[in-house]
Design a protein that fits this description.
With 263 residues, the protein is an all-alpha fold. It has one domain (3-260). It has helices at residues 3-24, 34-65, 77-80, 85-109, 111-121, 136-153, 157-175, 182-191, 195-201, 206-209, 219-223, 234-237, 252-257. The chain is globular. The N and C termini lie far apart (47 Å). The model has no long low-confidence stretch (mean pLDDT 89). The structure holds zinc ion (2 copies). One zinc ion binds next to α9.
Amino acid sequence: MSDITIRLSFFLGILFILIIAEILLPKKTRIHKRKDRWITNGLITIINTISVNIVNILITFVAVLAAIDVSNGNWGLFNIINFPSWLEILLIVIILDLVIWAQHYLSHRIPFIWRFHRMHHTDRDLDVTTAVRFHPFEIIFSMFIKIASIYLLGASAIAVIIFEIILNGMAMFNHANLRIPHQLETILRKFIVTPDLHRIHHSVYKDEHNKNYGFSLSIWDKIFRCYLEQPRDGHKDMKLGLKWQDNKPTKLGWSLWIPFKKL
Ligand SMILES: [Zn+2]
Ligand SMILES: [Zn+2]
């Protein structure tokens, strides 16, 4: 099986399980109908997939023109130090999770990048499809950061595939509108980012949405003092999205135009 088939199978499998779980154990009452958001979030996913593929082809083209041989395996930290492969994979997954955490933190701190990231935050309901609602330019930017990190680390293909599967799976999980039994949730949040933790990051209150930046591991927010345990209005009543917005995040054109909008 090719890399794309493996990742797509995990994506569809996890998506299906979480959609069923959201139906059986919903946490918050929805503002919009599922259909209204899902069409837009689904179309954004298709646009993102096409954009990433076009950029990928361009990068390969530029690399060939520049005669850069990146496949000789002499690049990066993990090609200099020899770790057992299981340890190398574990360390790469943890380090890349920190890189994504830092990128997310900066997306909220640097106004230019925030313009693109705010599209993700305009969803007024949170569910598994919010995990794919990112502006195509942000996805491309994120792709360059990942590629640079992979070369600096000298990460093996298998480590990158495992990291991508975990990151996508965790993003779908922590955006899910899911009620997890309190005791289980308390144990899970010690290690990973739960839906309750990430929901706080989508609060309309700025002091709440500038917290809980993690995607997979919850330790980074604790280490860098951005960890918030509960929202002040409680999970059932807290408002999601951005303060200034109207109810148009269900519209594709409006969503894609957000970075260029004057506020
Ligand atoms: Zn964010
Ligand atoms: Zn989010």
